[in-house]
Design a protein that fits this description.
Length: 268
Protein backbone atom coordinates (compact mmCIF):
# COMPACT_ATOMS: atom_id res chain seq x y z
CA UNK A 1 0.00 0.00 0.00
CA UNK A 2 1.22 3.48 -0.89
CA UNK A 3 0.51 5.98 1.89
CA UNK A 4 1.75 9.55 1.81
CA UNK A 5 2.49 12.36 4.20
CA UNK A 6 0.22 14.69 2.22
CA UNK A 7 -1.70 15.12 -1.02
CA UNK A 8 0.30 15.36 -4.28
CA UNK A 9 3.29 13.44 -2.96
CA UNK A 10 3.25 11.32 -6.12
CA UNK A 11 1.45 8.12 -5.11
CA UNK A 12 -0.42 7.76 -8.38
CA UNK A 13 2.65 8.04 -10.61
CA UNK A 14 4.67 5.68 -8.41
CA UNK A 15 1.76 3.22 -8.36
CA UNK A 16 1.65 3.23 -12.18
CA UNK A 17 5.38 2.49 -12.32
CA UNK A 18 5.22 -0.32 -9.78
CA UNK A 19 2.19 -1.88 -11.47
CA UNK A 20 3.87 -1.87 -14.88
CA UNK A 21 7.15 -3.17 -13.43
CA UNK A 22 5.43 -6.11 -11.74
CA UNK A 23 3.35 -6.83 -14.85
CA UNK A 24 6.55 -7.00 -16.93
CA UNK A 25 7.89 -9.57 -14.47
CA UNK A 26 4.88 -11.80 -15.09
CA UNK A 27 3.10 -11.01 -11.81
CA UNK A 28 -0.69 -10.81 -11.92
CA UNK A 29 -1.23 -7.42 -10.28
CA UNK A 30 -4.18 -5.05 -9.89
CA UNK A 31 -4.71 -1.53 -8.51
CA UNK A 32 -7.09 -0.51 -5.74
CA UNK A 33 -8.12 2.78 -4.15
CA UNK A 34 -11.07 2.71 -1.80
CA UNK A 35 -11.99 6.40 -2.02
CA UNK A 36 -11.04 9.00 -4.63
CA UNK A 37 -11.86 12.70 -4.59
CA UNK A 38 -12.33 14.08 -8.10
CA UNK A 39 -13.93 16.81 -10.17
CA UNK A 40 -14.52 14.48 -13.12
CA UNK A 41 -14.53 10.75 -13.73
CA UNK A 42 -13.67 8.11 -16.27
CA UNK A 43 -16.67 6.35 -17.81
CA UNK A 44 -16.18 2.65 -18.46
CA UNK A 45 -17.66 0.71 -21.33
CA UNK A 46 -20.80 -0.20 -19.36
CA UNK A 47 -21.47 3.41 -18.33
CA UNK A 48 -20.23 3.06 -14.76
CA UNK A 49 -17.72 5.59 -13.41
CA UNK A 50 -14.42 5.42 -11.56
CA UNK A 51 -11.47 7.74 -11.02
CA UNK A 52 -9.36 8.52 -14.08
CA UNK A 53 -6.28 7.62 -12.03
CA UNK A 54 -7.58 4.14 -11.27
CA UNK A 55 -8.40 3.57 -14.93
CA UNK A 56 -4.80 4.52 -15.80
CA UNK A 57 -3.41 2.26 -13.09
CA UNK A 58 -5.48 -0.63 -14.45
CA UNK A 59 -3.98 0.00 -17.90
CA UNK A 60 -0.50 0.01 -16.36
CA UNK A 61 -1.27 -3.35 -14.78
CA UNK A 62 -2.57 -4.76 -18.05
CA UNK A 63 -6.10 -5.09 -16.69
CA UNK A 64 -9.47 -3.81 -17.79
CA UNK A 65 -10.66 -1.38 -15.12
CA UNK A 66 -13.65 -2.35 -13.00
CA UNK A 67 -15.64 -0.52 -10.36
CA UNK A 68 -14.35 -2.71 -7.54
CA UNK A 69 -10.89 -1.22 -8.08
CA UNK A 70 -12.30 2.13 -6.93
CA UNK A 71 -15.51 1.53 -4.96
CA UNK A 72 -16.06 5.16 -3.97
CA UNK A 73 -15.54 8.40 -5.86
CA UNK A 74 -16.46 11.67 -4.14
CA UNK A 75 -17.27 13.94 -7.05
CA UNK A 76 -16.96 17.68 -6.43
CA UNK A 77 -18.43 19.39 -9.45
CA UNK A 78 -21.23 21.96 -9.29
CA UNK A 79 -22.78 19.74 -6.65
CA UNK A 80 -21.33 17.03 -4.45
CA UNK A 81 -22.08 13.53 -5.71
CA UNK A 82 -21.00 10.20 -4.24
CA UNK A 83 -20.37 7.33 -6.63
CA UNK A 84 -20.59 3.85 -5.13
CA UNK A 85 -19.38 0.92 -7.23
CA UNK A 86 -19.65 3.00 -10.38
CA UNK A 87 -23.13 4.43 -9.83
CA UNK A 88 -24.17 7.85 -8.56
CA UNK A 89 -26.13 7.65 -5.33
CA UNK A 90 -29.36 9.58 -4.99
CA UNK A 91 -29.40 9.05 -1.21
CA UNK A 92 -26.04 8.87 0.55
CA UNK A 93 -25.52 6.80 3.70
CA UNK A 94 -24.44 8.98 6.61
CA UNK A 95 -20.66 9.30 6.86
CA UNK A 96 -20.56 8.50 10.59
CA UNK A 97 -23.80 6.70 11.50
CA UNK A 98 -23.53 4.41 8.46
CA UNK A 99 -19.76 3.94 8.58
CA UNK A 100 -20.18 0.16 8.69
CA UNK A 101 -21.90 0.32 5.30
CA UNK A 102 -18.93 2.05 3.69
CA UNK A 103 -16.42 -0.30 5.30
CA UNK A 104 -18.40 -3.35 4.16
CA UNK A 105 -18.55 -2.11 0.55
CA UNK A 106 -14.79 -1.40 0.57
CA UNK A 107 -13.99 -4.81 2.06
CA UNK A 108 -16.13 -6.68 -0.49
CA UNK A 109 -14.65 -4.68 -3.35
CA UNK A 110 -11.09 -5.33 -2.20
CA UNK A 111 -11.72 -9.05 -1.80
CA UNK A 112 -13.16 -9.19 -5.33
CA UNK A 113 -10.04 -7.52 -6.77
CA UNK A 114 -7.67 -9.59 -4.61
CA UNK A 115 -9.28 -12.89 -5.63
CA UNK A 116 -8.28 -12.24 -9.23
CA UNK A 117 -4.72 -11.05 -8.64
CA UNK A 118 -1.51 -12.32 -7.14
CA UNK A 119 -0.84 -8.88 -5.67
CA UNK A 120 -2.85 -5.69 -5.22
CA UNK A 121 -1.18 -2.26 -5.20
CA UNK A 122 -3.32 0.01 -3.03
CA UNK A 123 -3.19 3.80 -3.17
CA UNK A 124 -4.13 5.71 -0.05
CA UNK A 125 -5.47 9.26 -0.03
CA UNK A 126 -3.98 12.46 1.34
CA UNK A 127 -2.56 12.03 4.84
CA UNK A 128 -3.41 9.07 7.10
CA UNK A 129 -2.99 11.17 10.26
CA UNK A 130 -5.33 14.14 9.91
CA UNK A 131 -5.99 14.78 13.59
CA UNK A 132 -9.67 14.85 14.46
CA UNK A 133 -10.71 13.12 11.24
CA UNK A 134 -9.79 9.58 12.27
CA UNK A 135 -13.46 8.68 12.61
CA UNK A 136 -14.24 9.36 8.96
CA UNK A 137 -11.06 8.06 7.32
CA UNK A 138 -11.78 5.20 4.94
CA UNK A 139 -9.00 5.30 2.35
CA UNK A 140 -5.96 4.91 4.61
CA UNK A 141 -5.84 3.07 7.93
CA UNK A 142 -9.17 1.19 7.56
CA UNK A 143 -8.16 0.01 4.07
CA UNK A 144 -4.71 -1.05 5.30
CA UNK A 145 -6.36 -3.17 7.99
CA UNK A 146 -8.92 -4.70 5.62
CA UNK A 147 -6.15 -5.61 3.16
CA UNK A 148 -3.61 -6.63 5.83
CA UNK A 149 -1.29 -4.41 3.81
CA UNK A 150 2.43 -3.73 3.92
CA UNK A 151 3.02 0.00 3.53
CA UNK A 152 5.41 2.28 1.66
CA UNK A 153 5.31 5.77 3.19
CA UNK A 154 5.87 8.44 0.52
CA UNK A 155 6.72 12.11 0.73
CA UNK A 156 7.98 14.64 -1.81
CA UNK A 157 11.09 16.74 -1.39
CA UNK A 158 10.40 19.72 -3.66
CA UNK A 159 10.01 22.46 -1.08
CA UNK A 160 11.86 21.10 1.93
CA UNK A 161 10.36 19.62 5.07
CA UNK A 162 10.13 16.13 3.61
CA UNK A 163 12.13 14.48 6.37
CA UNK A 164 10.02 16.16 9.06
CA UNK A 165 6.83 15.12 7.24
CA UNK A 166 7.93 11.50 7.26
CA UNK A 167 8.95 11.48 10.92
CA UNK A 168 5.82 13.39 11.96
CA UNK A 169 3.50 11.06 10.04
CA UNK A 170 5.30 7.98 11.35
CA UNK A 171 5.06 9.19 14.95
CA UNK A 172 1.33 9.97 14.70
CA UNK A 173 0.39 6.62 13.17
CA UNK A 174 -0.96 3.96 15.53
CA UNK A 175 1.73 1.50 16.54
CA UNK A 176 0.11 -1.42 14.72
CA UNK A 177 0.06 0.59 11.47
CA UNK A 178 3.67 1.73 11.96
CA UNK A 179 4.63 -1.94 12.14
CA UNK A 180 3.26 -2.41 8.60
CA UNK A 181 5.67 0.13 7.05
CA UNK A 182 8.40 -1.63 5.05
CA UNK A 183 10.09 1.38 3.47
CA UNK A 184 10.18 5.14 2.97
CA UNK A 185 10.15 6.78 -0.47
CA UNK A 186 11.46 10.31 -0.94
CA UNK A 187 9.88 11.38 -4.21
CA UNK A 188 11.07 14.29 -6.39
CA UNK A 189 14.49 13.92 -4.79
CA UNK A 190 16.80 16.30 -6.63
CA UNK A 191 20.49 15.79 -5.82
CA UNK A 192 22.36 19.06 -5.64
CA UNK A 193 25.93 19.89 -4.74
CA UNK A 194 27.30 19.10 -2.27
CA UNK A 195 25.62 15.70 -2.67
CA UNK A 196 27.09 14.32 0.56
CA UNK A 197 24.54 16.38 2.51
CA UNK A 198 21.68 14.64 0.73
CA UNK A 199 23.18 11.20 1.29
CA UNK A 200 23.73 12.06 4.96
CA UNK A 201 20.06 13.03 5.34
CA UNK A 202 18.86 9.78 3.79
CA UNK A 203 21.18 7.79 6.06
CA UNK A 204 20.00 9.62 9.19
CA UNK A 205 16.34 9.07 8.34
CA UNK A 206 16.96 5.37 7.74
CA UNK A 207 18.75 5.02 11.07
CA UNK A 208 16.12 7.02 12.95
CA UNK A 209 13.19 4.89 11.78
CA UNK A 210 15.12 1.65 11.19
CA UNK A 211 13.63 1.46 7.71
CA UNK A 212 14.99 1.31 4.18
CA UNK A 213 14.82 4.74 2.52
CA UNK A 214 14.58 4.94 -1.27
CA UNK A 215 14.66 8.02 -3.50
CA UNK A 216 13.00 8.82 -6.81
CA UNK A 217 13.99 11.82 -8.99
CA UNK A 218 11.68 14.15 -10.86
CA UNK A 219 9.96 12.19 -13.62
CA UNK A 220 11.14 14.37 -16.47
CA UNK A 221 11.93 11.46 -18.79
CA UNK A 222 8.40 10.20 -19.19
CA UNK A 223 4.86 11.50 -19.13
CA UNK A 224 1.53 10.00 -18.19
CA UNK A 225 -1.59 11.93 -17.24
CA UNK A 226 -1.92 12.75 -13.56
CA UNK A 227 -4.69 11.70 -11.23
CA UNK A 228 -7.01 14.54 -12.23
CA UNK A 229 -8.76 15.51 -15.44
CA UNK A 230 -10.52 18.70 -16.47
CA UNK A 231 -13.42 16.86 -18.08
CA UNK A 232 -15.09 13.47 -18.17
CA UNK A 233 -12.98 10.92 -20.05
CA UNK A 234 -14.06 7.66 -21.65
CA UNK A 235 -12.06 4.50 -21.12
CA UNK A 236 -12.73 3.24 -24.64
CA UNK A 237 -11.02 6.37 -26.02
CA UNK A 238 -7.89 6.22 -23.85
CA UNK A 239 -4.42 5.45 -25.14
CA UNK A 240 -2.56 2.45 -23.72
CA UNK A 241 0.47 4.63 -22.87
CA UNK A 242 2.75 1.64 -23.44
CA UNK A 243 6.02 3.52 -23.93
CA UNK A 244 5.26 5.98 -21.14
CA UNK A 245 4.45 3.25 -18.60
CA UNK A 246 7.52 1.27 -19.64
CA UNK A 247 9.81 4.29 -19.20
CA UNK A 248 8.24 4.91 -15.80
CA UNK A 249 8.77 1.28 -14.82
CA UNK A 250 12.42 1.53 -15.86
CA UNK A 251 12.91 4.43 -13.43
CA UNK A 252 11.04 2.64 -10.65
CA UNK A 253 13.19 -0.47 -11.09
CA UNK A 254 16.34 1.63 -11.04
CA UNK A 255 15.47 3.61 -7.92
CA UNK A 256 13.27 1.36 -5.78
CA UNK A 257 14.62 -1.83 -4.26
CA UNK A 258 12.14 -4.14 -5.97
CA UNK A 259 13.86 -7.25 -4.60
CA UNK A 260 13.33 -5.91 -1.06
CA UNK A 261 9.69 -5.13 -1.79
CA UNK A 262 9.00 -8.51 -3.35
CA UNK A 263 10.75 -10.21 -0.43
CA UNK A 264 8.61 -8.53 2.24
CA UNK A 265 5.53 -9.31 0.16
CA UNK A 266 6.49 -12.96 -0.22
CA UNK A 267 6.77 -12.82 -4.01
CA UNK A 268 9.39 -14.87 -5.78
Amino acid sequence: MLMSTHTDAGKHTIACGILRSLKRQGINVSPFKSVSIEKHTCKLSDGTEISFAQALQAIAAGKAPRTEMNPYVALYDEHFTLIELGKRLVIRPHMIRDRKHYLAVIERAFKTVAMEAQLVIIEGSGSPVELGLEGIDLANIPTAIVADAKILLITEMTYGGGYASVVGTWSLLPEDIRARIVGIVLNKFDLKEPVEFAHKGVKRLSELLNLQVMTIPFFDETYIPGDATQHTVYYDELDNYTSEFNKLADIIEERLNMNHLKSVLGIQ
